[in-house]
Structures are given as C-alpha cells and as structure tokens.
Amino acid sequence: MAKLILSLDGVVLREIKLDRDTTRIGRKPFNELQIDNLAVSGEHARLSLIGGDAFLEDLDSTNGTSINGQPIQRQMLKDEDSIEIGKYKLKYLSEAGLATGRPQPDDLDKTMVIRADSLRPMPPSDAKAPDTVMELPAAKPAAAPSPAATPAPAAPSHSASADLKPAAIKVLTGGNAGKSLDLVKNLTSLGKPGVQVAIITRRPTAYFLTHVEGPSRPLINGRQIGVQAEALNDHDVIELAGVKMEFFYK
Amino acid sequence: MSQLVNALEIVGLTDPGMVRGHNEDAIDFDPAAGLVILADGMGGYNAGEVASGIATTLLSQGIKAALEVMPPHLPETMSQKPAAHRILRLEIEKANLAIFQTAQSQPQCAGMGTTLVTALFYDNRLTVAHVGDSRLYRLRDGLLQTLTRDHSLLQEQLDSGLITPEEARQSHNKNLVTRAVGIDPQLEPELNDYDVALGDLYLFCSDGLNDMVDDEDIAAVLNQLNTHLPEAAQQLIQMANDNGGRDNVSVVLVRINRKFAAQRGLWSRLLGRLGR
Questions:
Q1: CB contact under 8 A, B108 and A154
Q2: Which residue segment(s) compose the domain that A89 sits in?
C-alpha cells in the first residue's frame, strides 16, 4: 500500500498508510492527516487515489502546496515525490515502488478490465496493485502466472540507445565524397529509392545495417550482408548503390 | 473482390516481446475481403490467448461469410448507414457471446476477455470497430494520427482533464481498459467511418507497441519505410523490444496502392458476379 511519511526539519513524525479513496490534509481535526500548525490551512490539500495513481490537490490553501519545490494546484504524484506544506514535508512512496524496490512489478503491465462503476476506494489489502483494482463479473480470475523467474524489468527509458556512443558515416566515393552524416535518429535510410536502399538502425547494443530494397544486398568490407540485420563495427566500409562509405564511432 | 487484392498491401507481425512467455495477441487479415483483425487477450494462465483466438477466428469466418451475401457499401434502409456497420456489429456481438459463454462454462477461462480493433476496407473508405485499447493509426501526407480513442481509464482521465498527457505517460493505470470483448453478455463496440486516400498507410497495433514506442518514433519508421511494409513492421517490433518489450506486441500495416470504388450499376454488379 502506498504511504506518506511526514517529517519536520528532517525528523520523521508519522507514517500514513493511504488505505482510503481520499486523504484530507489540514489543520482541523476532521482531516485524516491533521497537521496542527498555523501555517497550515484548516482544509489544506486532498490526496485522491485513482487506480494505481495518486493525485494531490491544493484546496485553495493560504500558503499553498508544493511538490519538489514547485507550487501546484493539482498533480499526479510520482514515487518518492516530496510534498511541502508549510515547513512540513510529506514523502510519497508509491505501492509499486514499495513492492519491489524501485522497478515496477511485471504484473502492472497486464491488461485488465476496469468497470466504470468500480472506481471506488481500493479495499484495504496487502495484495498486489492489479488485484485490488480489478473487478470482473464472473469469478475472480486465477492469479496471473507468477513471473518469478523473470527479473523485474527497468522502466522503459524510451531512449533505449541513450548509452550508445554517437556515430556517423562518411561518404568515400562518388559525387558526395567527403561528406558525412551523423546517425542521430533511431533509423536512417541510405541509398537510392528504386535502385538500392538500406537502413541503419540504432539499437541499445550497436548500430545495425539492414537491406530494404534492390536486387542485391549491400556489402560490409566487401562481403554481402545476409537477410538479417548486421551489427556495424567501428571503421566498417559499407558499399551501397555503387557508393562506398565508412561507419565510425565519434 | 479481386479489386481489393490489388488495392491493399497488408503485412502483419506479432511477437511475444521480451518478458512474457507466451503471446496473448492474435491477428488476422485478408486483402481480398478488405478485412483486418487484431485482438489483445487478457486473463489468467493462457485464457488470454483463448479469448483473442476465438475473437479473430469467429470474426474472420463470420465477416467473410456475411460479405458473400451483403455488399458492405449498400446503405441500410432504416439507418442509411453502410451495411458494413451491421456486419461488424453483428459479428462482434457473436464473438462476444462466444467468449463470454466459454468463460462462464470453463473454470480455467473465467474472467478472460480481449481488446479488439477490426476494420473493413470497401468503396474507397473504411469502417473501423474497436473495443479497449488496441489502436488504429493513419499516416497521411507524413502525419501520424490516431483514428481510435482508447476505451481506457487513462483516456477517460485525459478527456475529463483530470490528468495531463505528461502525467499520463507516468501513470500506473495504463493497463486498465474500460471495455473488453467477452466480459459482459452485452457489448457496445465503437464504430467510425473514414475516407481512404491513395498512399495512406494504416497501422493496427496492440498496446505493446504504443506503450513502448513514442508516436514520434512510430511516425519516423512509417515515413522512412513507407513503401517497405515488411521492414517497417519488423522495425516497429524491434523498437518495442529494444525499449523493454514488456508486453506482447502486434502490428498490421495496410497501404492503399489503388482506389477501390464499389461497382454500383446493375450491369457491373451482374458482370462482377459472373466474373467470380
């Protein structure tokens, strides 16, 4: 279950389990999280859970609410966000983060049906997130097969090639000899449409050359490549549509 | 019918991804019928692939049989909508009931269901029906556009302004769909019509693609490999897997190489029948 850790000047005061649909934060006693300090408004902020996400909303408080130093009106919380209310800090620890350390459990990716009428408070439960928000008309489906053998994958970076060194190709022969082209995109196509076309794809481990069009496949260092993509090594010479070019890491 | 074979170039690929042991996606397509079906199954053990398998098999058979007796472009007397609507609704209803009843009667299939995106191409247009978060994109004049709107909690939150697109990317609710085939005895699929232009490229995909690969990168691949569909499909799946491949990933690409207006006159219809 997700939770908040309330602290003042680095001293932890309380730990609040987020076991209900909404958690009100403020100075008055009816708040689920009461902070008895004059800098805190009577009804200061509200935290709502929707599915596996938590949203924090400032309730027009006098002194405002910030997340990681930025004043907010309403914002979705990310794991380990720091909420600031007056001099108090609230650290948000998401359920996904708590379950397995930081990477998310694989089950969170499983597609499931949620029915419109089931968007109600999550029942208090120590079960994994997907089970608690799921509502199916028939019997509860059998538990998803445990991916025990599979290590939890890191969140997708959407820039899988970020670690790969930048590379370029330099044209060695023909009219464009001497020109070079930085391989900044995930996919760069080379050659002449209708004659011979190949693509260089940037992947996490290396750059790859793949034949796309034309009666013959391109050459790497004088050898014709196969049907599959072939990894390029530093200073490989590619020959395509009668033009030689060199691949190199910068 | 043979007209469609020359007009539509279709390529489909499906892959289990990098994490899952089995593939719960199912695809089917037939250029002669102008039909594409993509389903992403869900449910415990292997029930997900049972659901997506039933959906693609029944829809493929049912729709093709219906097309034999009902030209999809002819307007219905009551609704004035093309017959394609009725064909798709009826066959999706049948598939929904078949999956629902199997789920009820087979304990190991309890709770199974599937998303669906299916389209019929006819008379220079297409009718797309979808349920859940499998998508149809269109690349036209270099621009990529989503033609379907996900039936998902996240999309509802986006629509009502509860969440920004930036927050949506970070959300943990990506996997929650609000409609699926086979979950309830009643189902309301969403149907939309679009005109088709020469050179259009259509991409049907499961969320294993668009959760892993940004729309910008999808557009770049489709633009660069516009005339090389097998390579484009391969590349899209490769990118999803390179970014983690946390779900099954399926793509079907359809390129419009020629126009395909329906034959309207009595004469041409008769000739068309004789020619078959």
A1: no
A2: 2-94
| Coil/strand/helix, residue B71 | coil
CB < 8 Å to B115, chain A: 111
User: Exposed, middle or buried, A137 (CB in 10 Å: 0-12/13-18/19+)?
Assistant: middle
Interchain pair B44, A145: CB under 8 A = yes
- B-contacting residues in A 27-56 (Cβ below 8 Å): 50-53, 55
Taking phi over 0 as left and psi of -120 to 50 as alpha, with beta for the rest, A71 belongs to beta
Domain count, chain A: 2
Same domain, residue pair A90 and A174: no
- Does A150 map to a domain? no
Q: In this structure, is the dihedral angle defined by the CA atoms of residues A141, B158, A96 and A106, taken in order, positive or negative?
A: positive
pLDDT beneath 70: ranges in chain B? 1, 44-45, 265-276
Write out the E strands in chain B.
Answer: 8-15, 25-30, 35-42, 113-122, 125-131, 135-140, 143-146, 176-177, 190-195, 201-205, 249-256
CA B237 to chain CA centroid, Å, is 17
Cβ contact, residue pair B175, A111, below 8 Å: yes
Residues of chain A with Cβ-Cβ distance to B19 below 8 Å are 106, 109, 147, 150, 153
Structure letter (DSSP) for residue B34 = T
Of B163, B175, B235, the CB nearest to A201: B235
Residue whose entry in the numeric block shows the structure tokens 């979808």: B130
Whether pLDDT at A71 is above 70 = yes
Phi and psi at residue A27, to the nearest 5°:
-80, -30
Residue A116 contacts B where some CB pair is shorter than 8 Å:
yes
CA A167/CA B23 separation, integer angstroms? 35
Q: Is residue A229 part of a domain?
A: yes
**A213 assigned to some structural domain:** yes
Inter-helix orientation angle B229-242/B215-224, to 10°: 150
Helix, strand, coil % over all residues of chain B, rounded to 5: 40, 25, 35
CATH number for position A182: 2.60.200.20
Contact A141 B178 (CB under 8 A): no
Indicate the pLDDT class of residue A99, thresholds 50, 70 and 90: low
One-letter identity of residue A2: A
Q: What's residue B116's pLDDT?
A: 98
Between CA A22 and CA B38 the distance in angstroms is 38
| ipTM value greater than 0.90 | no
CB contact under 8 A, B111 and A141: yes
Question: Parallel, antiparallel, or unpaired: how do β-strands A236-240 and B143-146 relate?
Answer: unpaired
pTM of the predicted protein model: 0.75
Q: A-chain residues within 8 Å CB-CB of B51?
A: none
**Measured between alpha carbons, how far is A55 from B172 in angstroms, rounded to an integer?**
12
CATH superfamily for B2-274 is: PPM-type phosphatase domain (3.60.40.10)
Domain ranges of chain B: 2-274
Contact between B116 and B131 under an 8 Å Cβ cutoff? The reply is yes
